[in-house]
Design a protein that fits this description.
mainly alpha; 3 strands
Length: 177
Amino acid sequence: MYERNEPSVLFHSLHHAHKRQVVTEQKTRGVADLGAPLILLTLYYVDSKGKKLSQRDLAKRLRLSPATVAVSLKTMERSGYICRFPDEEDQRRNLVSITEKGVKAMELCGQAFRAADDRMLADFTPEEKEQLTGFFVRMLRNLGVTTPEKERPPFPPPPDPEGGRETQEETERDSQW
């Protein structure tokens, strides 16, 4: 029987408390209907690199089932956050792209996540935040989400604000997404 102070119980509670806080922050910013912000983040990142993803590629990058992504995309398309269009190279598949409305929503959602994180980590020192991040990376690695030789976050980082050229490391990382 698990106790209330077991790491997995605390992590589960933390995850749900953080999610509730993010939803509250999204509501204050007018993007409460955004059910899958990591989809928008991924599309934003990929679009910033001049690339497009199919629905299947998007599911693979996010480690979600194609059916789950399909449901989210349908909702997001109805709300005007994404659009789908035929792949010129293969008319049997559609590519997905973030719209201007989606970019604005993703930016507002990013603000919501930052506000939730700021509240959650309010009394942590920079050193403690760095240590906590290291623990999370190690836990993800232990669960097979990251590999020691290519430490990377579980989702793509935001695009380079300078719009600079992609490095070889970024190209290799992106190919895994």
